[in-house]
Design goal:
Layout (H helix, E strand, L loop, with lengths): L3 E5 L9 E20 L2 E18 L4 E18 L14 E17 L3 E13 L4 E12 L2 E11 L3 E9 L9 E11 L15 H6 L4 E9 L9 H8 L3 E5 L1
Length: 247
């Protein structure tokens, strides 16, 4: 890798020296990483990294990359502070992932509150059995406004297309509002068992566990989830625009 570094400053009393870094790219093959931070640990095996040309401006916190692609045969993440689930459920604090692929183009991060990137693919298979075959979208974040146009999600048995717009409250994330529009897809309720095995004991869930549900319409949420109210009635009241049909 060959990097070009330049710096300039016309007035040292009023301006910070601007450091710019331009590099043609980085290619790494069969990388084995072991990264630890406090109680968190991330390890990878047989990982390939393709980092194309980019620009970095340290004075303005501007980072630009043409393309990033990451493929990993095995990836594990765990947090020793959080007890591990023992029932085989998907555990976000103890992940064991195989065949992962992540590819993003035209990534631009400006001072960490202005972010743009085109995710052409995110896919993986987790030890629980859950498989994400494809996630593709465009990320456009400007301060507290998040937009994800043309979201495409494909799992082992479900698929979903939609557009997301959100107003984020970073201090109280549960008070953030979101709007999902142009929703269209087929959902397999049985995939919920990857995240909660106890659902198998629920009589209502048993009736739809092997079904496929056609989902179409819009969703919006502008209020915090109620604490002392049945979730089903909340869904009916807040999400009237959503149409679901079992077949």
């Amino acid at each position: 890798m060959k990097a070009i570094i330049s710096s300039s400053s016309s007035d040292t009393t009023n301006k910070k020296s601007e450091l710019k870094i331009k590099f043609p790219g980085i290619i790494g093959k069969n990388l084995n990483l072991d990264i630890q931070s406090g109680t968190r640990n991330l390890t990878t095996k047989n990982t390939n990294l393709n980092l194309s040309e980019g620009n970095i401006s340290l004075a303005t916190n501007l980072y630009e990359l043409t393309e990033i692609e990451l493929n990993s045969g095995n990836l594990s993440y765990f947090d020793t502070k959080v007890p591990k689930k023992q029932n085989g459920e998907f555990d976000p604090n103890h992940l064991e992932i195989t065949n992962s692929n992540f590819k993003v183009k035209k990534l631009k991060i400006n001072n960490f509150n202005d972010i743009y990137g085109e995710i052409s693919n995110l896919s993986f298979k987790e030890k629980s059995g859950f498989e994400l075959k494809k996630l593709a979208t465009i990320i456009n974040l400007k301060k507290d406004n998040l937009s994800l146009p043309k979201i495409e999600i494909i799992t082992g048995s479900s698929n979903l297309n939609s557009t997301l717009n959100a107003k984020l409250d970073t201090n109280h994330i549960e008070k953030s509002s979101f709007f999902l529009t142009e929703i269209k897809g087929n959902l397999a309720p049985g995939e919920a068992l990857y995240f909660s095995k106890n659902l198998a004991k629920n009589e209502n869930f048993k009736k739809v566990a092997n079904a496929t549900i056609l989902i179409k319409g819009d969703l919006q949420r502008q209020y915090q989830f109620p604490k002392n109210r049945k979730f089903q009635s909340f869904i009916a009241r807040k999400y009237r625009a959503l149409n679901c049909r079992q077949y």
